[in-house]
Each structure stands twice: as structure tokens, then as C-alpha cells.
Design goal:
Blueprint lengths: L1 H14 L1 H71 L18 H20 L5 H11 L3 E6 L4 E4 L5 H4 L13 H10 L3 E6 L5 E7 L1 H20 L7 E8 L4 E6 L12 H6 L5 E7 L2 E12 L2 E11 L1 H87 L5 H32 L7 E4 H18 L2 E6 L6 E4 L1 H18 L4 E9 L4 E8 L6 H6 L15 H11 L3 E6 L5 E8 L4 H4 L11
Parallel strand pairs: 11-13
Antiparallel strand pairs: 1-2, 1-4, 3-4, 5-6, 5-9, 7-8, 8-9, 10-12, 13-14, 14-16, 15-16
Length: 609
């Protein structure tokens, strides 16, 4: 039946092609469009979710950078306050150093400047120093004065010549003086010029470094920042890759870790950070084969922006979170697509099943209309044709009996023509009988009757004809006295049609086997098997259609009539066949009356004849 349904569906689509497309394709297209839209919306939502997650994680790292900056800023402010307080104390002698330099804040600045003096002295001893080098060194380090004084007290190198006012007589002196430690001391007292002198152990010379107000502010801030970074200490454990702090002019104030490359143009809004319009700026970079977030934020000292803090934070943990979110999104997307495709397939299959049901209903309606038309046609044909046929038949018999030509040759030809007329009348009468039988096949009167006696009658009717064609009739199970509710004449007609169909399929001798089998508790099987030519699947699909026939003569209503009669008895027909392997019809009949006819028919058992 599945093959039949598919063929009917194709025939229905061919017959109602345009209507079917309007009815079927748009819903499927709508379902597919909605599913694609759903997937796209989910994908867009997932991408937006990932972007939002990335922004949240970047904000988290930025807050972490602001926290580190805040700690450095607070410690730098504290160190700078201590340094200012220490600077306001006076030393006992011009050349004395603060007591307890490890604890006293002024020692920090002194130690820094002393290191610079040693570096200058080292170059002087190696004879790799000239006035240009001294000037470049002072500019790079933000120093007001760098000078080298020999053991006689005269200046050997210095980065600048002092302004005239510094050489005017000071105190009780009446003449300008050369640069010396005494002059520097007096300048420190009156002009607020701070300095440090680093004398060699052998007394062969002295390196002098002096700071004006701007230099003192820069180096005080630098020392405070560097001590704050040292105190921060455990920065690497917080994911800190590097930290570098520069002043407003770009001079270095402090650093930690391996320093990154310098900023290129437009990497960081430097001016916006210094003006305070931008509180923090960040960008993802790859540094030391690591994904990091490069952060820049202003450094506030005494309530004003004193420089910029640049921090590099490791993004490894945040990248792992984002990667996990991407995997989850991909997995969920695959799951959603699978569910969507499954729903589409289910809806398509459900819609196709409903369409097949509609086709089956329409096919049943068409068949019912066709059968009704055939019934009406059969009644009309019987009424309109039978009487003329009877008249023609009687006239032909009269001609044959009373008007035979005397000549032998003409008489033979006359007998031949009259025989043709008689045979054709008989054939037309058979066609009318088929129509009449088909139109009346559903009006059944069921009585209980032995099925084997019906089959035995059929065997007796066809035995001589089968023997003439070289066909052997075999029976099986006829000894059982199975009683079924039946319309005996119509059931006999249906079974006879099956047997005749089997005989017509056998060419040149063969056999037909008729069997009675108790198939189920409430059903009996009558099996009619032949050794004929068999049928193809296409022929099996159409064998019970009234309009289908393989005969050169006749209407092909025999098996269609048999099918209607068996169905009217509440039975079922099963067919199996193959080309050149014969055909088997298995007719399953109920042993009890169908409910719709049980009350309208008597339960009298028919008599055996």
C-alpha cells in the first residue's frame, strides 16, 4: 500500500500541480524562514553576549589597573610628604649627611644623586667625557648643574655657565669668584639651589650635582615614586607584567618589570590623559608572546596630574573565560541548529502525512464518484441496449434458420458471418452483465454457509476448461467445514474471478492451487496461487483499479468487482507476485458478521447443495 500511496500522491500532484504548490510549499518555506531567522537571532545575540563579556572583563582589568595605580599614588604621596618634611630640616654643617640614611627620607634623594655622581666620575676616569657629554647627561637626567672640580678647586667640566648674577660679589666679597664648593654653599643658602658634592677618596677631584626648583621637584617625585613601586612589591603575583611612570614632560619617574616599547602616535590619548578629560585608556597588545592589556591612567600628586602611569596586565585568565564562553556558545548553537532542523523535519513529515491523507480522501471520493457513475451507466446500458440486442439475436437466429443460401460456398460464408454476429452479441451481453454486477456488488445479504462448498462449486465449474488448457487444479484444506457469513452468489462470483485471472496468466500449461487456511482466531484465509507469468510492481499497484486491464477484449472489471465484494464482506486481500514466478492472492474473511449487517441479516445457515 505504501507504493500505491506514493503513486497516488504523484498522480495527485501532477493533476493539481499549481494548487498543490500554493498549498504546500509556502508553509514549508515559512517554517524554514522562521528557523533561519531564529538561528540568526541566536547567533547575533551570542556575538553581542561575547562582546559584552569581553567589555566586562576589560573593565575588570581596568579596575585592577586603577587599584594598582591608586596604591602607587598613595604611597608616592606619602613618600613625597616625608621628603618635603625632611627637606625643611637644616643640617649642622655644609657637608654633613642626614643621620640614619636608611630610615631618613632625605637619604633617598641623596643616594639617587650620589649614584649619578659616581656615573659621571667613572666616565671622567675613563677619559670618555667632554663638555658635550656633560650637557647631554644633565639634560637627560633633569639636572640644573653637573660640574667636575679638580683638587685645586677649579672647574674642569660643567654643563652650563652660571648667569651673571651668580658671579656678582656675595657677602663681603668685592670680586667675582670661580665656581667652587663655597660658592655652591652660598648659592644654596641664598638662591635656594640644592646640590650634592661627591669627593674622591684620594682628594683628586669632586663631582658636583646641583638642582634648581624644577629639578628638585622632579627628583623628589621620582624618588617618591620609585620607593612606592618598591613597596608595592608583589605586583607580579597580581598579573602585573610591567609598570612605567613618566612625568608630564615625558621624563621617567619609575618602572617595574621588563619595559615595553614606547608609545607610537595615536596609541594612547596622551594629551587627553594629562588634561584629565580621559580617566583611563586601554588597548590589547601582544608582548613577550602574551596577550596583555596595556593601560594608561593619570598620576595625581597633591591633587594635580603629575604624570602618566602605564601598566601591562596579563589577560590569560580573561582569555580563558572568553574562550570557554565561545565554546559554550558554539555548543549551544549546534544544539539549537539540531533542534531547529529536527523540528523542521518533523513539521515537514507531519505536513506531508496530512497531504497524503488529503490525497487518499480525494482518491476515495473520486473512486466513489467513478463507481457511482459506473453503476448509473450500467443501469442505463442494461435498459437501453439489452432490448435491441435481444431483437438482433432473434433476427440473426431466424436468418440462420430460414434463409440459408443453396450454394455450398455461400452457405459456408453465411454460417461464418452469422456466427460472428452471434459471438459479438454474446460479448456485448457479457459486458452489460459486468456493469450490472459491478453496480450491485455492495448490496450484500449475508448468510452463514460452508466456504469449502463454494470453492468446490468453482472447481467443478472450471475443471473442464482448465483441463482443456493443460492446467491442473489442486485443492488443500477442503476437508474442514468452515462456516462464514457470506452472500454466497457474490462471494462465488468474486472467487471465480480470482481463479479465472489465474487461468488467464498461465500460458502453455501449469497449475492452480486453492487452499483454505485458518489464519487467525476470527479470520479465515483462502489462498489462490498460480504458476503463471506473474506481475510487476507497477501492475500490482493498479490491478484492482476499474479502469485498468491487460485484456484485449473486455472492460477489466473482474478483479475490481472481486475487490469490492471482498471488502463488502469485511475482508482483506493480500497480493504477492513476481515476473515469471506466479501470483498468489490471499483472501482473509471474518468468521463473524460485521456489526453493520449483523442485525439486518438472519442467522440462518445456508443449505448444502
Amino acid at each position: 500500500m505504501k507504493i500505491q500511496e506514493k503513486k497516488d500522491l504523484r498522480r495527485y500532484q501532477a493533476k493539481h500541480g499549481s494548487h498543490d504548490k500554493r498549498m504546500y510549499l509556502p508553509p514549508l518555506a515559512i517554517i524554514g524562514g522562521v528557523c533561519v531567522l531564529f538561528i540568526c537571532l541566536f547567533l547575533v545575540t551570542g556575538i553581542l553576549y561575547l562582546q559584552r563579556s569581553e567589555r566586562i572583563l576589560v573593565s575588570f582589568l581596568e579596575n585592577q589597573g586603577l587599584g594598582i595605580t591608586g596604591v602607587v599614588q598613595r604611597l608616592s604621596q606619602e613618600n613625597l610628604n616625608l621628603l618635603v618634611q625632611a627637606g625643611q630640616e637644616k643640617t649642622e654643617t655644609p657637608y654633613s649627611l642626614p643621620k640614619a640614611p636608611a630610615l631618613y627620607p632625605k637619604a633617598w634623594l641623596t643616594a639617587q644623586l650620589a649614584d649619578l655622581g659616581r656615573e659621571v666620575d667613572k666616565r671622567w676616569q675613563a677619559s670618555h667625557l667632554n663638555r658635550g657629554d656633560i650637557k647631554k647627561f644633565a639634560d637627560e637626567k633633569g639636572l640644573w648643574l653637573v660640574a667636575i672640580i679638580d683638587k685645586s678647586g677649579r672647574s674642569v667640566f660643567q654643563n652650563r655657565r652660571l648667569p651673571k648674577e651668580y658671579y656678582l660679589p656675595l657677602g663681603n666679597s668685592s670680586s667675582p669668584r670661580e665656581l667652587s664648593l663655597d660658592l655652591l654653599y652660598e648659592l644654596a643658602q641664598q638662591r635656594k639651589i640644592g646640590y650634592i658634592a661627591l669627593q674622591r677618596k684620594d682628594g683628586s677631584g669632586t663631582v658636583v650635582i646641583a638642582l634648581d626648583r624644577a629639578g628638585l621637584i622632579y627628583w623628589g617625585l621620582k624618588v617618591a615614586v620609585e620607593k612606592a613601586i618598591e613597596k608595592l612589591g608583589e605586583g607580579q603575583k597580581q598579573g602585573l607584567i610591567y609598570m612605567t611612570i613618566v612625568s608630564r614632560s615625558g621624563m621617567p619617574l619609575g618602572k617595574s618589570g621588563r619595559q615595553p616599547e614606547k608609545w607610537r602616535a595615536n596609541d594612547i590619548p596622551f594629551n587627553d590623559l594629562l588634561s584629565g578629560t580621559v580617566k583611563i585608556a586601554s588597548r590589547p597588545v601582544v608582548y613577550l608572546q602574551k596577550n596583555i592589556l596595556d593601560i594608561a591612567t593619570p598620576l595625581y600628586i597633591n591633587g594635580t596630574i603629575a604624570g602618566i602611569v602605564r601598566i601591562g596586565l596579563d589577560k590569560q585568565s580573561t582569555d580563558r573565560i572568553l574562550q570557554e564562553n565561545r565554546r559554550q556558545l558554539l555548543s549551544f548553537l549546534i544544539f539549537a541548529v539540531t533542534i531547529t532542523i529536527s523540528c523542521m523535519w518533523f513539521l515537514y513529515r507531519n505536513q506531508k502525512r496530512h497531504l497524503a491523507g488529503i490525497v487518499a480522501i480525494e482518491r476515495s471520493l473520486e473512486k466513489a464518484e467513478r463507481l457511482s457513475a459506473l453503476g448509473q451507466l450500467a443501469a442505463g446500458v442494461a435498459h437501453e441496449i439489452r432490448n435491441p440486442l435481444n431483437a438482433i439475436s432473434m433476427a440473426s437466429q431466424r436468418l440462420k434458420r430460414d434463409f440459408n443460401p443453396p450454394e455450398e460456398e455461400k452457405n459456408r460464408e453465411f454460417q461464418l458471418l452469422s456466427g460472428v454476429i452471434r459471438d459479438e452479441i454474446r460479448r456485448l451481453n457479457a459486458i452489460i452483465e459486468e456493469f450490472l454486477s459491478f453496480s450491485k456488488s455492495r448490496r450484500l445479504e449475508l448468510r452463514y454457509y460452508p466456504v469449502t462448498e463454494v470453492l468446490q462449486k468453482i472447481v467443478n465449474l472450471i475443471h473442464e476448461e482448465a483441463a482443456a488448457k493443460g492446467i491442473t487444479i489442486k485443492t488443500s484444506g477442503f476437508s474442514s467445514q468452515e462456516i462464514l457469513p457470506m452472500d454466497m452468489d457474490k462471494l462465488q462470483q468474486a472467487l471465480l474471478n480470482f481463479v479465472k485471472n489465474a487461468m488467464e496468466s498461465i500460458k502453455g500449461g501449469g497449475e492452480i492451487t486453492i487452499s483454505v487456511i485458518r489464519k487467525e482466531k476470527e479470520r479465515l484465509a483462502i489462498r489462490i496461487a498460480d504458476t503463471g507469468c506473474g506481475m510487476s510492481p507497477a501492475e500490482m499497484e493498479r490491478i484492482f483499479n476499474p479502469e485498468y486491464t491487460t485484456k484485449e477484449k473486455g472492460l477489466g472489471l473482474g478483479l475490481a468487482l472481486a475487490h469490492e465484494i471482498i471488502r463488502g464482506h469485511g475482508g482483506e486481500i493480500r497480493l504477492s507476485s513476481a515476473i515469471d514466478s506466479g501470483t498468489t492472492f490471499e483472501i482473509l474473511l471474518p468468521t463473524q458478521k460485521p456489526p453493520d449487517v449483523a442485525n439486518s441479516s438472519s442467522d440462518r445457515t445456508g443449505e448444502t447443495t
